[in-house]
Amino acid sequence: MTNDNALAAGFGLQQKIRLTTFLVFDTAWRIGSGKEGETMSDLGVVLDPISQPVLPGSSLKGKLRSTCETLSHALGLRACMLNYEASGVKCTSDVNYYHNVRGTYQEAFQKGLRDRLQWIEENTCDVCKLFGSPMQASRLCISDGMLKEWASVVQVRDGVVIDRDSQTAVNGLKYDYEVIPSGSRFEICIDLENPTDQDMALLGAALFEWHSGSSIGGFTSRGLGRFRLENIQLAGVNMSDSEQRMKFLTATKTEDRLSDLGDWETYFTGHIKRQLSPATEIEEN
Ligand SMILES: [Zn+2]
C-alpha cells in the first residue's frame, strides 16, 4: 500500500473474534454502589431496577485490563500502567507524557495518514492498543454480565474501622456492607475487532488466568470476589476466508454469522507460543 487511500481502506472489519463464557463466583462478592444499600447497610451493592445484582461491563473491562498489564511483561509486551515515569513505557494514556509530545503529533498529523499512524504506533503501549487510548478506540468490547443464577438475597456483613497506624480496630467505629452470596453466575461476551497478534496473546493469557481463577470487585483482600470462567466458546470471522466471509454476509440469524473457531485453549496457546518465539528465529530457519 503506497497511499493514504489504500491505508484507509484497511480500516474496515477484517477480523472479528467473539468469546462467550460463564463467570461463576466461588465466594461472596460486591461491586459497590457508592451509597447506602437497599438493606439500609452503610455500603450498598449495585442492583438493577428489580433488585438483582449487576456485573457492569466497565468493571469487567477494568479487571481484564489490569490482568493484561500484569501478564504483559511475561509475554514480552509493553504496559504503560498509565504512568510513563513509573513504567518507562511511552504511551499517550499518560496525561503528562501526552502533553509533552503533543507537538510532534501535530507535525505527524500534517504530513498525512501514514505518519500519523506511525506516530500512534510508537506512542501507544501494547495494553492501550488493545484497551484504547486518547488516540485510538478500544479494539475490545465486553458486555455487562447477564445474570443466570444467584441466591436471590443480598447479605449484610459487619466491618470495623481499622486504624492505619496501629492496625487495630477503632473502638466503637463499626459499619456494615452488602455482599452478593457465592454461587452467582453470569454469562459474558467479549468482542475483539481486527486484533493484532499481540492482542490475541494478551487476551489469551488473561483468559487462562481468569479460567483458573481471579478476583473482582471490592474487599478482595478479605477474600471476596473470587471467580472463574466456565465453558468458553470461541467464534469469529476472518474476511480473508471466503467461506467465513460468505456466512457472515448472508446469515439471517445473529448467532449464525460467526463461524466456530474450535477449542479456545488450542487457539490461544498457538497465539501465545508465536508471541514468545522471537521473529528472528523463524526468519533464520
Ligand atoms: Zn498505555
Instruction: Provide the β-strand percentage band.
Output: 15-25%
Low-confidence stretches: 280-285
Rg computed from alpha carbons, rounded to a whole number of angstroms: 22 Å
SSE topology string:
HEHHHHHEEEEEHEEHHEHH
Structural class: alpha+beta
Mean pLDDT metric: 90
Total helical segments: 11
Q: How many E strands?
A: 9
What does this structure look like?
By secondary structure, the protein is α+β, with helices and mostly antiparallel strands. It has helices spanning 4-9, 57-72, 84-87, 95-111, 113-122, 126-131, 197-212, 242-250, 254-257, 264-276, 279-284; strands at residues 15-25, 140-142, 146-149, 155-162, 169-179, 185-193, 214-215, 226-238, 259-260. It has eleven helices and nine strands. Strand 4 (155-162) and strand 5 (169-179) form a beta hairpin. Helix 2 (57-72) packs across helix 7 (197-212) and helix 4 runs antiparallel to helix 5. The longest helix is centred in the middle third of the chain and has 17 residues, at 95-111. The chain is globular. The protein starts with a helix and ends with a helix. Mean pLDDT is 90; it is low at 280-285. The structure holds zinc ion (ZN). Zinc ion (ZN) binds next to helix 6. Zinc ion binds at residues 80, 91, 93, 125, 127-128, 133.
